[in-house]
Amino acid sequence: MEYSKLLGVVAFICFSIPMIASSSDGHFKLRVNLTRRSEGDFNFTERLSGAVDRSKIRMNMIEAFVNQRIAGQLDAETPIHVGNGEFLMNVAVGTPSVSFEAIVDTGSDLIWTQCRPCRNCYTQSTPIFDPSKSSTYSTVPCTNSLCNALERSKTGCNPDCMFNYRYGDGSETTGDLAYESFSIGSGSDSMVAGITFGCGHDNQGFSHDGGLVGLGRGPLSLISQLGSKVDNKFSYCLLSITDSPSQTSPLIFGEGASLSGANTIPLIKNIVVPSFWYILVTGVTLNGEPVNIPSGTFHLQPSGAGGMIIDSGTTLTYLVEAAYSPVKEAIKAAIDLTPTDGSSVGLDLCYQTSGQVTLPSLTFNFKGGVNYELPPENFFIQISNNLLCLAMKSTSGKVSIFGNIQQQNFQILYDNAQNTLSFKPTECDSL
What we know:
By secondary structure, the protein is mainly β. Helices cover about 10% and strands about 35% of the residues. It has two domains: about 5-250, Acid Proteases (Cathepsin D, subunit A, domain 1); about 260-430, Acid Proteases (Cathepsin D, subunit A, domain 1, Beta Barrel). A ten-stranded mixed sheet has the order 2-3-13-12-29-30-14-15-18-28, with no helix packed on it. The longest helix has 27 residues, at about 45-70.
């Protein structure tokens, strides 16, 4: 397999929503176009280094959170806090509506935005939502079951539900849990009434624009709240990081998310951490030969430890050491080059290259004989004209993460009703 020179930048991704329709039975058909957002005046190496740093923070936080839940240090009502993700979408809230740009995160649940009056708000490019000016805003009472999905240690109820949502990178939002109409498209069918969200009056430590939209499996996430209106499913297809930032990638909810001819695997539910999307990996093959990974390395344990999650907000794939070490050694044995230092971008298996390099084929194996074969650009990154690095790292913890570089140019369908994940190699810019 030949690996040609990769060009382009690592970037955040911004979502714009050009169309939504509702069928006669009340089901929504929603397509969102994704566009890349550059990350300031940094060169490629600096942008990649930042993405790797964020991935490490996110991975460490996920591991710590799972361990705290297993140890009983966090109860079942404490929400998932996985920090800032890598993707953004434009939404509008209220009547009249106010648009804002929010992170989209498959690893968390709460939908929230900054709200006036601000005790502490960071600068955003769009107006901050003022609930006093909206005719469709109302607060959630403490007796509502959704209030119990939030940590209230700092705010409590008096008598309405208040929230405090803390993330692993130190950022934090506090405010009122409320109902509001959200516009997630254009035209007469775009408004969805009664969405429960966090109206944040005290927001600290965030570097993105206006808020967050959770696409996890918990009751407060957007996919859970839309539920049967979108057939409990969504899919996305991420363009390669090497493609032009002006090109778009689709995020699809509902009937339009159906994926024919795809491979389908079961999603695994972790009762200790119910919001993450767990997948069951049985092994890894390199050039068609099984890598010597101990049996059960990726299995989710009855205690809630271990397993692998698929996550849009983590750039790299992280493997537990029992898997990463043999995978890394097998790759090194298959590439006829001497490894070099990749510490400048936080990666630990890199090669100095000149021209094309023959790379092995790498495949993740799932239960039932289903395979996910990675194209070379989905597990190696061309850092510069002569530096090529593996887009995977090890974790000292017990949770593995299947990151977004490994997902690029695959259409991936999450079906929360059927409890399945489907995937298919796809030219995302052709959808």
